[in-house]
Amino acid sequence: MSVSLNPSRRQFLGSIAAGSAGVMMSSSGRVFGAESPNDRPVFATIGLRNQGWHITSKSTQFADFAALADVDATVLGANLEKLEKKTSKKADGFKDYREILDRDDIDAVMIGAPDHWHTKISVEAMLAGKDVYCEKPLTLTIDEGKLIEKIVKQTGRVFQVGTMQRTENSQRFLKAIALIRDGRIGEIRKVTCGINGASGSPVIPAIDAPEGLDWDMWLGPAPKVPYRALPQMRKGYGGGVPLYTNCHYAWRNWYEYSGGQMNDWGAHHVDIATWALGAADTGPSKVTPVSFDLPVEYANGYPSVSDQYNSPTKFEIHVNMPGDIPMVISSEGDNGILFEGTKGRFFVNRGKLTGKPVEDLETNPLPEGAVEDVYGGPVSKNHTANFIEAMVARTQPVSDVWSHNRMLETCHLANISIRLGRELNWDPVARQIIGDEEANAFLSRESRKGYEINM
Predict the structure, then answer these.
(1) Which one of 254, 281, 345, 415 has the fewest CB atoms closer than 10 angstroms to its CB?
(2) Which CATH class is domain 9-168+375-400?
């Protein structure tokens, strides 16, 4: 689905940056804006550790936060304090996110919960009349993506996926796509996405969950299993939690809750590569696992043990994209995207854009407006600003669910191919794996009883 743009988009973003955006009507009919006593939209965040706090903190310049929710009382309390210190306003705190959805004074929710919670919260929030900003990767399965698309269309909600390389980290990536569209490397012959490898874990024992953490609710739709952790603590980003665990931060290494590096960094770089190839409305035709390492033994696509990380540590996946353009997704090499064409090649990541076609821009610059044409208008440098702009215009933002899901289907299929150890043929129209009933069973997962989606 294409992104519709408001004619006064540049003016609007300027006014958001200045802290006043004119009069705006929220999805619930509440008026907010510079000429209204309700000056700003009202948000709530569900899931607060690390990225949940990051998206909240950076959004306080554009929106007021009336409520926060987290199943860990310690995390919730700490973030309520940080928010009050930052904004001089108190927000309500909840363990159960449904208490946020029941409120009429909240225009939108931001979701920073682990991946296995994304779809349930997103669908229920939209059905409750809220616009949604949800962290990437949006879904745990391909069928979850289809459901979210259906509910967005049914409800008319605005939905922003938190793939910030389309906005806040976008300048190099947008220029890269503009280079391709302007023919600077000729016809694309190959795209390589470097997305880093990962590490396995030691055996992680089952222990009591930390005080304040509602472990059953953290698991939510996922299978009931014991909490696991070793005493060694993680440092740096994601610090303050066990280095080895099946919970905070390290949940990304478990297929039960996420998709490993394939869905973590892949949701960034495969997204840009798919956008550059003009394949955001379709998908691959074939996914082949050339090589991969799994940290535990697998049988019929499922790990044989439950006390160690189970997502891939190394991999090289070959993907047939439209026009038979090969895409390689690799855990080796520099993190970023290498585009190769008949006239040249260049590399792009968050820190650099390098290669002869880039050097040639000094004497042969891109046409005026080429980067804006890629984006679809003046480039927003803040993901939340783009989200609020779309809320006002009642359009979809630059990181919409349709393009995100199409890209993420490649990552999901790569993971399925690794789990089963074989090539998969994909029908991008039917959105089904061709001739492989066992593989198609991985397109969806059953929610644990009591945590089904309320529709």
Answers:
(1) 281
(2) alpha beta
